Each structure stands twice: as structure tokens, then as C-alpha cells.
């Protein structure tokens, strides 16, 4: 028997989460059983832990969209007991039981072997948010990062923190947008060279184009901020659009695309094929300064999760929450 955070929904549609003792027979079908060591709190986890159940597709449910641990048993020749693995995406924690338990059973195709240089705790300090940040940076690189500062929005959050550290580690000048001035020292410690106040980019303008300022952008916020940023990109520069923490609407014009050749690149970490995930995890192990990763970590346990889910939806988490499911 082992611990799992089980979310249930009652007849009135109200959800509740409780740490429960369950057995291996309770786990969903899959080729690989993993002894989970760490999971995290991502924005989607906040939604799944919230009152309506967010993206959860079946009840009872174990949320947790990512985890890292050690293979305990495998019916797939690619994995054997003792292998260290990491999982992100594939609707785990939404349609299939996820990482908020001491054991998980999943399809072998969803796993990636842990690259050298990362242990399970560091892999979850990166987690889905960090993998997404790496995919966003790789997309900018594929389209060419122009000379000058690269903007990161939602910088003190999970995706933003990792994107800031990766870009700075690669030698780029990083301008970090935050609505929390008290995180300026933290963002500078991750390598940001410029702090931009959220309200400076939230103010709407009637001008579709402004001074060419940013050589690239990793955007975790969307909404009005993304619309404003599009008009400030350098000629031919790219924006990796990752998230919608500031809203799903996009009140923009086509002018930045027509007159400045701006590229808007959509980033999806969920259905990434194995080879892409492997390449991105390899780049994380190589290019993400590990001392900076440590500075982002907030440790947590399974019992902290309901409160942390509420915090992330309010944009109040700094960096990355790492959940030790065995604590
Ligand atoms: P976090 O909550 O950790 O970070 C989001 C940050 O956005 C906040 O910390 C805050 O940063 C800023 N923010 C929050 N609300 C607002 C607002 N109303 N206006 C402007 N800025 C705001 O979340 P994550 O970093 O984990 O995720 C960020 C987004 O990326 C989410 O929408 C998430 O769903 C998405 N995502 C997408 C993935 C993909 O595959 N495409 C994968 C992972 C995440 P600050 O305080 O610095 O201003």
C-alpha cells in the first residue's frame, strides 16, 4: 500500500482531495510501474486541484501532470527495474492518473530516461514548466534570435524563471517582465539584466507598432501583454507563445506580422514526440545552470498541494515547487 492524493467529485459537482492509502491494483493500466520520487505544481495542476476539477477527465483521480522516479517493473524492453525516468505531458494528471502518488503506472512511450547530469529532484525542479521553457528557447533558436535583449513575460513564475536562467546561461541579454517588484533580486540572480514592470506592458496602446526593442520573446502570459509585445519586436524576430496566465484573448492587429515579419510560434509540451523530448531534456542538462535551478526551488509535500494549487492560479508561486511524494 502507498500514499496517493485522490481527488473525488460528489453529486453536486464539488471536488475534494484527500491523501489515501491505495494498492498497485488500483493503478491504471500501463507497461511501466514507477516508484515516484518527485512531482511538481504547474498551472494545469492548479486547475485540476481547483473547485471544478479543471482538466480532470475521470474520478476518482490522481492529479500531477509530471513526475520523476525509478522504474519498479516494466513490460517494455526499453525500461528495466532501477532505471531513472521522467514524465511530462500526454494528459497524465488529467485523463490518466499522475504524479501525486508514491507509485504510477504509465505507457512506456510517455517516459524519457533521465539524462546524465540530472537527478530525479532536479528533473522535477525543471518539470513541465522548465521543459516548455527549453522548447520555447529552441524554437527561438530555430528561427534565429536577433541581437539585443530577449523578453521573458511572467518571469517570476515557473516557465519564466527557467526561461530566464536558460537564456542568460546561453549568453543572451534577458529582460524579465514581472508584476511583483519584490522578485527583482531573484530574477537578477537568475541572470536577468533588465526588469520590466508588468504595468508598462499591460497598458494598451492604439499604436500597432512601437520602437523595435526585443530580439526574441518567451511569453507565458498571452492576452493584452502579448498583443503589446508583438508591436515591440525587432524586424524578423520571434515570440514563443507558451501560456495564457494573463488571458486567452489576443487583441492584436496583423501589422507586426506584415510590416515587421514577426513570427508567432506556438509551443506545446504535451504531445511532444519522444525524440524532441529527449533532445530538450539533453539541452536542459547541458545548458541550464544548476546553481540557478536550486535558487528557484520551493520544497513541498503531498499535504501542501491543495493550498499550492490555489496559489499558482493566483500567480503567487515564485519559481518551481518540487513535491517530495515520500516526505
Ligand atoms: P506560474 O503561475 O508559475 O507563472 C505565471 C506567471 O505569469 C506568474 O508568476 C506571473 O508572473 C504572471 N502572471 C500571472 N497572472 C498574470 C496576469 N493576470 N497578467 C500578467 N502576468 C500574469 O505558471 P507557469 O509558469 O507554470 O505557467 C505559465 C503559463 O504557461 C500557464 O498559462 C500555463 O498553463 C502555461 N504552460 C503551457 C505549457 C505548454 O506546453 N504550452 C506547459 C506549461 C505551462 P510575475 O509575477 O512575474 O508577473
From TrEMBL:
EC code: 1.3.1.-
Coiled coil: none
Oxidoreductase is among the record's keywords: yes
UniProt entry tagged with the keyword Oxidoreductase: yes
Leader sequence segment: none
Residue ranges of domain Enoyl reductase (ER) in the record: 14-323
UniProt cross-references to Gene3D superfamilies, sorted A to Z: Medium-chain alcohol dehydrogenases, catalytic domain, NAD(P)-binding Rossmann-like Domain
InterPro entries in alphabetical order: Acrylyl-CoA_reductase_AcuI, ADH-like_C, ADH-like_N, ER, GroES-like_sf, NAD(P)-bd_dom_sf, Zn-ADH-like_protein
Protein name per Swiss-Prot or TrEMBL: Acrylyl-CoA reductase (NADPH)
Species annotation: Yoonia ponticola
Lineage: Bacteria, Pseudomonadati, Pseudomonadota, Alphaproteobacteria, Rhodobacterales
Amino acid at each position: 500500500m502507498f500514499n496517493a492524493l485522490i481527488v473525488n467529485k460528489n453529486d453536486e459537482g464539488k471536488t475534494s482531495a484527500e491523501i489515501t492509502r491505495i494498492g498497485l491494483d488500483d493503478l491504471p493500466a500501463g507497461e511501466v510501474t514507477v516508484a515516484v520520487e518527485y512531482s511538481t505544481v504547474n498551472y494545469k495542476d492548479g486547475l485540476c486541484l481547483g473547485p471544478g476539477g479543471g482538466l480532470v477527465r475521470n474520478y476518482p483521480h490522481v492529479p500531477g501532470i509530471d513526475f520523476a522516479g525509478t522504474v519498479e517493473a516494466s513490460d517494455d524492453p526499453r525500461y528495466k527495474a532501477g532505471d531513472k525516468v521522467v514524465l511530462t505531458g500526454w494528459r497524465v494528471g488529467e485523463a490518466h492518473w499522475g504524479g501525486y502518488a508514491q507509485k504510477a503506472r504509465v505507457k512506456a512511450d510517455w517516459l524519457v530516461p533521465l539524462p546524465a547530469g540530472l537527478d530525479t529532484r532536479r528533473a522535477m525542479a525543471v518539470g513541465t514548466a522548465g521543459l516548455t521553457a527549453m522548447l520555447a528557447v529552441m524554437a527561438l533558436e530555430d528561427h534565429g534570435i536577433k541581437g539585443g535583449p530577449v523578453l521573458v513575460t511572467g518571469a517570476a513564475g515557473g516557465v519564466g524563471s527557467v526561461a530566464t536562467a536558460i537564456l542568460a546561461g546561453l549568453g543572451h541579454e534577458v529582460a524579465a517582465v514581472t508584476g511583483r517588484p519584490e522578485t527583482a533580486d531573484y530574477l537578477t540572480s537568475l541572470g536577468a539584466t533588465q526588469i520590466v514592470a508588468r504595468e508598462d506592458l499591460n497598458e494598451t496602446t492604439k499604436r500597432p507598432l512601437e520602437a523595435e526593442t526585443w530580439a526574441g520573446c518567451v511569453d507565458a502570459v498571452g492576452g493584452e501583454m502579448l498583443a503589446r509585445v508583438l508591436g515591440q519586436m525587432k524586424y524578423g524576430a520571434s515570440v514563443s507563445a507558451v501560456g495564457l496566465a494573463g488571458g486567452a484573448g489576443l487583441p492584436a492587429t496583423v501589422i507586426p506580422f506584415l510590416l515587421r515579419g514577426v513570427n508567432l510560434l506556438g509551443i506545446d509540451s504535451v504531445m511532444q514526440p519522444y525524440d524532441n523530448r529527449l533532445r530538450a531534456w539533453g539541452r536542459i542538462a547541458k545548458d541550464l545552470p544548476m546553481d540557478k535551478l536550486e535558487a528557484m526551488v520551493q520544497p513541498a509535500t503531498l499535504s501542501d498541494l491543495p493550498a499550492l494549487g490555489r496559489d499558482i492560479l493566483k500567480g503567487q508561486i515564485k519559481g518551481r515547487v518540487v513535491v517530495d511524494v515520500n516526505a
